[in-house]
Write a structure and sequence with these properties.
The protein is an alpha+beta fold and 195 residues long. It folds into 2 domains: 9-135, Jelly Rolls (Sandwich), CATH 2.60.120; 151-195. 48% of the residues lie in helices and 21% in strands. The protein contains 9 helices and 8 strands. The strands form 2 sheets. The protein has a 4-stranded antiparallel sheet with strand order 1-8-3-6. A 4-stranded antiparallel sheet has the order 2-7-4-5. It starts with 8 loop residues before the first helix and ends with a helix.
Length: 195
């Protein structure tokens, strides 16, 4: 296990929501590991059990499954200071239907489910941190579902691009189309209208 003497982006992020002592930071740093990923590297592949949660300290990752039409269906992106995992596989211990892949060269801080449970005992305020983060993620997912059902494809694109303008430069067009629920061809038409 790696030991870190300097604060990791994760502990800086946690401190935005809860207080941590220097001893707490040391305990957290001892429980996590840092992984450097090249673009297209997989952290999780379908039919494997997800055993870790990943905090993105640099880069961009995606969570996707293969739908009945054999197309990649992206359900989540994660950029700096966001978490990503397959919660179902992590909790159940069953093989995942999802893949987690680096969209660009990335660095993540990972923690196993077992280590996280140990941290909740050693650093109790982490439960509050994770409750806040998970509630925000759930709210974002709920809003995304609402947008899919209440907005046209074009409205979804413009709404997303106004909320996350940086994604348009970082994420390939076909991935953004998958996430927003339409074809890359439709995405091209929308973008052509803009120019």
């Amino acid at each position: 296990m790696q030991t870190f003497t300097m604060p990791l982006p994760l502990t800086d992020h946690i401190k935005k929501f809860v207080d941590l002592s220097a001893a707490d930071v040391d305990v957290i740093n001892a429980a996590v590991s840092v992984k450097t990923l090249k673009k297209k590297t997989f952290l999780l592949e379908p039919d494997h059990v997800c055993k870790e949660l990943y905090f993105v300290s640099k880069g961009c990752l995606r969570l996707y499954f293969i739908n009945k039409k054999l197309n990649e269906q992206i359900t989540q992106f994660a950029i700096e200071n966001w978490w990503i995992t397959d919660h179902d596989s992590l909790e159940s211990g069953k093989p995942s239907k999802y893949a987690i892949q680096a969209v660009e060269n990335s660095e993540v801080i990972s923690i196993t489910k077992t280590k996280l449970e140990e941290l909740f005992i050693a650093v109790p305020q982490l439960e509050r941190y994770f409750r806040i983060v998970q509630l925000r993620a759930f709210t974002a997912a709920q809003k995304r579902i609402e947008f899919i059902y209440s907005m046209t494809e074009e409205e979804r694109y413009w709404h997303f691009s106004s909320l996350f303008p940086g994604f348009l430069q970082r994420v390939p067009q076909y991935m953004l189309a998958s996430y927003l629920g339409f074809t890359p061809q439709f995405m091209s038409k929308i973008r052509a209208k803009k120019t």
